[in-house]
Design goal:
Length: 247
């Protein structure tokens, strides 16, 4: 039986660590070649080297707030592997604070990286994919974009915006064979979430019917489904991967 992503080429932003890296690892395991984009060039190169030689994975410096950087990332994938079949817009940051204490800069940074970054990635990938009449774009939203979490007016706004952006883009490019879908992770065990105070962690755990945090690999599995032909008739959808939190 052939692997789910045999012969496919994927670009993943923010993939030097965390969920992005887990997606890259799963894609390679399923037969894809990947290009890792990350703001940190050294970490991107190291992550790519950990996945295999340059015939399998490449690392490229990319600031997703820059249209030129995102285009260069797509171009690097085409130069290395010929095409881009899958685009995963995963790069993100947090600048949590209550609305009263949040600075305008903290708001702008989060909107720029998440919302504008996803727009750049979706736009550049769709422009390439429409010529080939095929492709899957996967945008990482968050449960925060569904329910709104206190201390995250910037992040919740950006993550909700990603859903609207993805649905609008899906309508624009669906007839060209290009699919655009979202994943909304819940509480996933990463370096970022494990840095939370224990009280906050326990509070979040109490909201999860399955009684545990998710693993990055569990997001990667869903990304693999959306990247593959198993989801060939799905576009504009939002897949919640939350253990039942806020259903």
């Amino acid at each position: 039986m052939s692997a789910l992503l045999d012969g496919k080429v994927a670009v993943i932003t923010g993939a030097a660590q965390g969920i992005g890296l887990a997606i890259a690892e799963k894609f390679v395991a399923d037969g894809a070649r990947v290009v890792i984009g990350d703001i940190n060039a050294d970490q991107a190169a190291t992550a790519a080297a950990g996945l295999g030689d340059t015939s399998v994975a490449r690392g490229v410096a990319c600031d997703v707030t820059s249209a030129a950087d995102v285009q260069a990332l797509i171009d690097a994938a085409v130069d290395a592997f010929g095409v881009v079949d899958v685009m995963v817009n995963n790069a993100g940051i947090t600048r949590d604070a209550t609305m009263r204490k949040m600075t305008e800069d903290q708001f702008d940074q989060v909107i720029d990286v998440h919302l504008k970054g996803v727009w750049h990635g979706t736009r550049a990938a769709a422009a390439h994919m429409r010529e080939r009449k095929t492709g899957s774009i996967i945008n990482l939203s968050s449960i925060s974009g569904k329910v709104g979490l206190a201390g995250q007016t910037n992040y919740s706004a950006a993550k909700a915006g990603i859903v609207g952006l993805s649905k609008a883009a899906a309508k624009e490019v669906g007839y060209l064979g290009v699919r655009v879908n979202c994943i909304q992770p819940g509480l996933i065990r990463t370096a970022m979430t494990e840095a939370m105070p224990e009280r906050i962690w326990d509070q979040k755990m109490a909201e999860i019917p399955m009684g545990r945090a998710g693993e990055p690999s569990e997001i990667a599995n869903v990304a693999t489904f959306l990247a593959s032909d198993l989801s060939s008739y799905m576009t504009g959808t939002v897949l919640e991967v939350t253990g039942g939190r806020y259903m």
